[in-house]
Amino acid sequence: MKHHNILKLQGLFIAGLIISMFGVTACNSGSNTSGSDSTSTASSSSGKQILGAGSSFDNPLFSKMFSQYNQQNGIQVNYQSIGSGAGIQQLISHTVDFGASDAPMNPKQDSTAGADVLNIPVTCGAVVVTYNLPDVKDTLMFTPSVLADIFLGNIKKWNDPKIAAINKGVKLPSTSIVVAHRSDGSGTTAIFTSYLSKVSDEWNTKVGTSTAVNWPTGVGGKGNEGVAGVVKQTPGGIGYNELAYALQNQMQYGKMQNKSGNFIVPTIASTSAAANVQLPADGKVWITNTDAPDGYPIAGFSWVLIYKEQNYNNRSQDEATNVVKLLQWMIHDGQQYGADLSYAPLPDAAVTVGDNLLKSVTYGGKAILQ
Amino acid sequence: MDNISGNFAVTRGDEASRVITSITNTENFKANRLRRSYRQISTEKVFKRTLMIVALIVLIVVIGIALTLAVQSTLSMKALGIKFLWGKVWDPVREIFGAYPFLIGTLLTSFLALLISIPFSFSVAIFLGEYYPRGWFSETLKNVIELIAAIPSVIYGFWGLFVLVPIVRTFEANIGAEPIGLGILSSSLILSIMIIPYAASLGREMIRMVPSTLKEAAYAMGATRWEVIRSVVLPYTRSGLFAGILLSLGRALGETMAVTMIIGNTNIIPKSIFSLGNTMASVIANEFTEAANPVYLSALIELGLVLFLVTVVINMVGKRIIKRFTNV
């Protein structure tokens, strides 16, 4: 009897092991097939689902747009908010139909892409300078040079004469300035550093423009909420946040002096105004430090990226057409959903550039949009 | 566990005796017996092979991870060479990548956390293992300690940011340090809480396994409780306690989310425990998604490789120390 029991136990144990092993391999193959499935749906004939990936800044707007688009056209768009850089990577490795980025593709990325990739402006956003001075009730004003000096660590106290000179009548405390910046790579940082590089030679040579830079001073917080956390908790803190985030969290933010010398409050209108400039035909432009007299100077486009020639990786013409039509809808009808979420709608000039770019998209050499 | 291995011992012993008994018994019974033992032997083989395969898969996965890290980081190794290890600047714009500040940050926070946590985890281990092994209070304490390990690290991060950081900031203001609150000290404190259960649980199990005959012998000679713990229990469980420390350290080295939220993510070499800093794991977590430039991406992967190697080295040194302890 005892032997039987032992045998049974052994049998059970082995069976369990084998099952779990099969389970593991099945899981593996399962995820493999689902992986290739998702890529093949991206390139299969049905084309009812469109895959996109990239910028997390765009995500709230895209979620709204895509759910509306699904209701209107019955086409599902699956967008993964994994960051601009990762979105570009996914596009280049052909795992998604479109990428989205807060910075236009740089020459290095263009060369790894293997074929022409179009950068289509899809929305614009502003980056605001947030600060925490509980005793200061007036909205502080910043000039480009003062802002650069603060983030370079040259101005260390709030009552520095340079800050006082532009904020006459405001009683500034002697608190130390605690600079907060993004610790994660981010399009917001790209816009902010692009602005500082344009207005300050010292910034341009010492630090430069990128999604992540070697910060001369300050504390790093992860994400918008990380920077906001440092600013809100630290008296004397200063940081930069997306406009939408600062509005939703009722943070103090300053007016920025633009190129024309006007001090501009960041709003949806002043962001759109900043974007209303002459755009190059390829859509790749930093609109920081805008020429527009009523434009807020720290603003930027966000782009959707697609291959110009859509006949790659066994994609069908239907699929390619669906993607292009979606993008066309996004830069026209889709824009109405922006304002509620504090995204600035595209100005006409940008829409025209986007239209021209979409018209240049081809399938097997022939234009998709007639 | 004991039960299962006990059963195997029985089976193995039986096989030998079975061969002997089958010779002396009747033909029919002998044939049956033989058939069954053949089946048993083949089951035995299949079982052994299955175990072997499963164990090999684990080995292959670990080697695979190391290889992937090594292969993916060749680009940055070529571009930066060995300078990567002691370079002090991390500048994605100019493609200068030095891991030194993060290496120091990782080691400093982990060892500081370990130092803070050891008194707590050992006290808990001795309390639960020796003084109150049973009862509602010790059950509760045991469960709470185990719960510490089950809480997701992002929650520690939040708690650290909203509760611990302001306390540390007040403390820093009082002693005259720059009152930011974020930094090495806060991260080490959070980490020390997170790693308590590893050393505590293992230590408790070890202490409970000390043979009571040994302890009773000591008591019989007039030793007090403290003397028994000091001269019998602790020496007996030394290697187990150290293994627990090693586990805790491993956890501290790799912790990402909670540390990222409160270390201040500043790429400088920390000058004091109030300084801001950064760790390897948190740099990777922060910058991986937006690293579009090939060398940049490769440098981040190389950072992962360095972290992997640091963990391996610390584990190897730890094993050596455990061995020395047990041989004495």
Which keywords apply here?
heterodimer; A: 370 residues; nine-stranded mixed sheet; three-stranded mixed sheet; 13 helices; B: 328 residues; two-stranded antiparallel sheet; 2 strands; disordered N terminus
How would you summarize what this structure contains?
The complex is a heterodimer of chains A (370) and B (328). By secondary structure, chain A is an alpha/beta fold.
Describe this structure in words.
The complex is a heterodimer of chains A (370) and B (328). With 370 residues, chain A is α/β, with parallel strands linked by helices. Helices cover 43% and strands 18% of the residues of chain A. Chain A is built from 13 helices and 14 strands. Chain A has helices at 2-43, 59-73, 84-92, 107-113, 144-152, 161-166, 187-199, 201-206, 223-233, 243-248, 268-275, 317-331, 348-359; strands at 49-54, 76-81, 98-101, 117-131, 141-142, 178-182, 219-221, 237-242, 252-253, 255-257, 263-264, 299-307, 362-363, 366-367. Chain A is elongated and about 65 Å long. By secondary structure, chain B is mainly α. Classes of the chains: A alpha/beta (370), B mainly alpha (328). The interface between A and B is large, with 50 and 47 residues.
